[in-house]
Write a structure and sequence with these properties.
Layout (H helix, E strand, L loop, with lengths): L12 H28 L4 H8 L1 H27 L3 H26 L8 H9 L2
Helix pairs in contact: 2-3, 3-4
């Protein structure tokens, strides 16, 4: 087999255009999936409280993120020839998700201990 048989011919302009459209569609889809947790918590008080809040919502979107990452992980496996790079990407995704769920989310929502308003303290001293 000659070396020229291993070289792929340059893609046609139509194929390059298709690849660009496909990449743009994938980027839009990924953006929508990234915004989904924020948008879905506005679905209504009952839906937000019952399904999307707390541990249930965290597990739901963690599982959804993993399932949607499987095609990317498979593609990484094919390109690199081993599971080390996809495993590292999956570990990085899990670490970022855990950090976001346990540190950033509570900091943004204000869950945890909050300071009491000043008027409550003044009101209690007035009853002594």
């Amino acid at each position: 087999m000659s070396a020229s048989a291993l070289v792929e011919p340059a893609p046609t302009p139509a194929l390059r255009g298709f690849r660009r459209v496909r990449a743009a569609a994938a980027a839009v889809f990924a953006g929508l999936l990234g915004a989904a947790p924020h948008v879905l918590h506005h679905a209504g008080p009952l839906a937000g409280a019952a399904v999307l809040a707390g541990a249930t919502g965290t597990l739901l979107f963690g599982l959804l993120g993993f399932v949607l990452a499987v095609p990317m992980l498979r593609r990484l496996r094919r390109r690199t020839g081993s599971w080390r790079v996809p495993g590292g990407a999956l570990a990085l995704m899990a670490a970022v998700f855990v950090f976001s769920s346990l540190v950033i989310g509570p900091a943004l929502t204000g869950s945890g201990e909050t300071a009491r308003p000043a008027q409550d303290v003044a009101h209690e001293s007035h009853h002594r």
